[in-house]
């Protein structure tokens, strides 16, 4: 599986997003999507945060 952190406006990890699957090689293709989702959550929780 893979996981990426979700940060607050101070850079503190407050949550994580993860995916699991049968083959880690195929999962790595989803890292950019996970990172983008984590950034989107950060912006939604902290609209004034600089990313």
Q: Which helices and strands appear, and what pairs or packs with what?
A:
Elements: E1 2-7, E2 13-19, H1 24-27, H2 31-45
Antiparallel strand pairs: 1-2
Keywords:
51 residues; alpha+beta; two-stranded antiparallel sheet; 2 helices; 2 strands; 37% helix
Please describe what this structure looks like.
4% of the residues are buried. The protein is 37% helix and 25% strand. The model has no long low-confidence stretch (mean pLDDT 90). The protein has 2 helices and 2 strands. A hairpin with a 5-residue loop joins strand 1 and strand 2 (13-19). With 51 residues, it is of the alpha+beta class. The protein has one domain (2-45). It has a two-stranded antiparallel sheet. The termini are far apart.
Task: Please tell me what the overall shape is.
Answer: elongated
Order of helices and strands: EEHH
Structural class: alpha+beta
- In the predicted model, the low-confidence regions spanning at least 5 consecutive residues are none
Helix content: 25-40%
Describe the largest sheet.
Answer: 2 strands, antiparallel
Strand arrangement across the biggest beta sheet? 1-2
Estimated share of beta-strand residues = 25-35%
Count of the separate structural domains: 1
End-to-end span in angstroms? 26 Å
Number of helices: 2
Q: Give the mean pLDDT.
A: 90
């Amino acid at each position: 599986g893979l996981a990426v952190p979700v940060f607050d406006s101070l850079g503190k990890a407050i949550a994580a997003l993860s995916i699991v699957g049968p083959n880690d090689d195929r999962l790595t293709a989803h890292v950019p999507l996970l990172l983008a989702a984590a950034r989107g959550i950060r912006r939604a929780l902290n609209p004034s945060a600089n990313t």
